Automatic annotation (TrEMBL):
<dbReference type="GO" id="GO:0015098">
    <property type="term" value="F:molybdate ion transmembrane transporter activity"/>
</dbReference>
<dbReference type="InterPro" id="IPR050334">
    <property type="entry name" value="Molybdenum_import_ModC"/>
</dbReference>
<dbReference type="GO" id="GO:0140359">
    <property type="term" value="F:ABC-type transporter activity"/>
</dbReference>
<dbReference type="InterPro" id="IPR003593">
    <property type="entry name" value="AAA+_ATPase"/>
</dbReference>
<keyword id="KW-0067">ATP-binding</keyword>
<keyword id="KW-0547">Nucleotide-binding</keyword>
<dbReference type="GO" id="GO:0016020">
    <property type="term" value="C:membrane"/>
</dbReference>
<dbReference type="InterPro" id="IPR011868">
    <property type="entry name" value="ModC_ABC_ATP-bd"/>
</dbReference>
<keyword id="KW-0813">Transport</keyword>
<dbReference type="GO" id="GO:0005524">
    <property type="term" value="F:ATP binding"/>
</dbReference>
<protein>
    <submittedName>
        <fullName>Molybdenum ABC transporter ATP-binding protein</fullName>
    </submittedName>
</protein>
<dbReference type="InterPro" id="IPR003439">
    <property type="entry name" value="ABC_transporter-like_ATP-bd"/>
</dbReference>
<feature type="domain" description="ABC transporter">
    <location>
        <begin position="14"/>
        <end position="244"/>
    </location>
</feature>
<dbReference type="GO" id="GO:0016887">
    <property type="term" value="F:ATP hydrolysis activity"/>
</dbReference>
<dbReference type="Pfam" id="PF00005">
    <property type="entry name" value="ABC_tran"/>
</dbReference>
<dbReference type="InterPro" id="IPR027417">
    <property type="entry name" value="P-loop_NTPase"/>
</dbReference>
<dbReference type="InterPro" id="IPR008995">
    <property type="entry name" value="Mo/tungstate-bd_C_term_dom"/>
</dbReference>
Amino acid sequence: MSMGIMKSLKDNFDKNLNVDIALDFDHFNLRCQFRFDLEGITGILGHSGSGKTSLLRVIAGLNQDAKADVILNGRTLQNRNNFIKPEQRKIGFVFQDARLFPHLTVLGNLNYAFKRCKPNHLDLEEIIHLTQIDALLNRDVLKLSAGEKQRVAIARALLAEPELLLMDEPLSNLDNRARGNMVQLLRNIHQRLSLPILYVSHNIIEIQQLSDDVMVMENGRIIQHGHVHQVLNNLHERITSEISSPTSLTLTVKQHLVNFGLTQLDFIAPHNNQVKLFAPLMNASLGQALRCYILADDLSLSLVKPEASSIINCFCGTVTQLHRLSRNGMMVKVQVMDHTFTINTSRYAVELLRLAHGTEVYIQFQADAIRCF
Ligand SMILES: Nc1ncnc2c1ncn2[C@@H]1O[C@H](COP(=O)(O)OP(=O)(O)OP(=O)(O)O)[C@@H](O)[C@H]1O
């Protein structure tokens, strides 16, 4: 197995992406300028039509009309005078639909990429195993399920040994269960290959579970870019006009209470008091950091500390924001130390509790409201 060689090669170059793009369609203008170190998975979130696909297409070299400077790992892919063709950019692209070669089997599709990439630093068997397609190799690609097709498409993209992988809504044709499995598979791939990924999705949960950094696009512009928790917990009002994003946290495992079916996670509350935060019992080692989220509908608010309550998680915090979501629905942000919690409640409750910026409140949630990954 050539994992050692793979890893050292991946680590040898400076990984960064430098982009300055101006692209004009009849009714849409894309203007993006950014430079960042390519380390993990960067999620790209935004309403339909905000320009996410257009941005990926320019980076991949699929839109020659764009006025763009694109520099990947110090290599100029495009500027006023140069245009490197898509197949020479060392950028992989996985689309919403798998786009496999229909006349080839699964193995034929993989070999197409593998044989064109010389010398090979990746091990074909390893990639087949990593993408869980061992049992599919001789199958006709037209007879695969949507999830199977996407796994083959990912394997094929990896075998071309890209320096950057672009993924455009790769899981949108899958049901919830297949989507969950694919998120885990993508995390494994990323961990094993250290391959930077730009990952476009409408699905905030998918972005929360996969991304280290998140960019938010609106109307052809990047309006937010930063660490996943920081961006998702403070999503721009225009993006959260109809939905609330989940509270996004990284928490470490403190202890397992096997008899109660609970796992205690580390959480620092006001005045530096360590308070107990419980999640459902999970198979994770002590000290392991977990990506966690809580849906806004799963939290409730109280003005007084509930002394005797069956809801076992309760923290004191301060209201920092109130935002009307619908005719009767409100979104409330509560700051608890460094953590911002997002709670959905009714306009009636906000008036009843006289909630305002600065109100001290207690947030409550059940153990199974916290979902960990
Ligand atoms: N070839 C084209 N010619 C003219 N307009 C285009 C072209 N491609 C995209 N657009 C327009 O550019 C805008 C951005 O499209 P884009 O596909 O980049 O958005 P998106 O954020 O990826 O949307 P979605 O999430 O629905 O896929 C849209 O208004 C779209 O109609």
